[in-house]
Amino acid sequence: MSIASDGDIKVEGVSLRSLPKISLHDHLDGAVRPGTIVELAAEIGLELPAGDADGLGDWFTKRSRSDSLVDYLESFDYTVGVMQTAENLTRIAREFVEDLAADGVIYGEVRWAPEQHLAGGLSLDDAVEAVQQGIEDGEDAVDRSGRSIRVGQILSAMRQSDRSLEIAELALDHRESGVVGFDIAGPEDGYPASDHREAFDLLAENFFPVTVHAGEAAGLASIRSALLDGRALRLGHGVRIVSDLDVIDRDGDEVQVKFGDLARWVRDREIPLELSPSSNVHTGAIEAWGTELADHPFDLLYQLGFAVTVNVDNRTMSRTSLTRELALLVDAFGYDLDDLEAFQFNAASAAFLPIEEREELVEMIADGFRRS
């Protein structure tokens, strides 16, 4: 096993970057290339904390190690700042798709909050259409390169604002033109899903898929509200579900655990957890268990049968990729190709797609791992 400087790793002689992957929790404003930020900021006179791509990348990396979600989120002022025109949104979305494909992703869902991109005069519809144009341009570019990728939009409402119903309506308006799901994002603690019950009711009435950031910066009550008030089909992060588990005994790989009602429900119903290992360390989401990736309860959740998926959350801020996240998990927990394939199967099954298309993704993953 050898980890290259770019985060790639070989497991059983196979490069992880070459394997087919599914990305479910990936923020558009957390994945802007530093070089693109520098270029676009210069055009609008936005002052940055560093004047070149490498320096800005270093600044994001340092900022992301704050151990605080609130501090972590402040770094988005610079990415969102250059995402206020249709042209810039389209470019950034296109580059996002190209970067996913270069990382071996065959299906991705990109989440972003349209309400944060109106300062330049765009309407909500204008913003969604600009991002969709970039996604389609990126998909076409990837197709021309001989690869294939599909990307759907998840529209996020900011949980500290009062526009969730409007964003839910926006998602429904664009469900036939690229939008596949709805989310609430932003500061989690103190802003439960129940604050947005009207939006979630509308989405449920229209059978529209929902994922909710929960169990990242807040605990079990946040997860409970996501499931009961938000009718979430997936949990954004959800790592703090571990608080509802009582580890009675651990002997090597054997673990005896007493489940709380909430943890048992999430496990038994196979509600997917959109875990983001590096980000969960950087934002302090796992602070109750430690400060290093090896302390992450990912492996405990996996061994207990939770539907774990692996995600990047914010590629720019955490200076990572899906390949790198898998590499870190291999290094921390000794996973083999069968384990990594299982994570991709979980993600494919959780995608906000019709079952026929999810089954097709599962076949593509199986074929890709088999050919490796």
Automatic annotation (TrEMBL):
The entry's keywords: Hydrolase, Metal-binding, Zinc
Enzyme class: hydrolase
InterPro entries per record: A_deaminase_dom (IPR001365), Ado/ade_deaminase (IPR006330), Metal_Hydrolase (IPR032466)
Domain of life: Bacteria
Protein's name according to its UniProt entry: adenosine deaminase
NCBIfam families assigned: PRK09358.1-2 (NF006847)
Cofactor(s), names only, from the UniProt record: Zn(2+)
The family this protein is said to belong to: Belongs to the metallo-dependent hydrolases superfamily. Adenosine and AMP deaminases family.
Pfam family, one: A_deaminase
Enzyme Commission number(s): 3.5.4.4
Adenosine deaminase domain segment(s): 20-366
Gene: add1
Organism expressing this protein natively: Microbacterium murale
Record bears the keyword Signal: no
Record keyword Manganese present: no
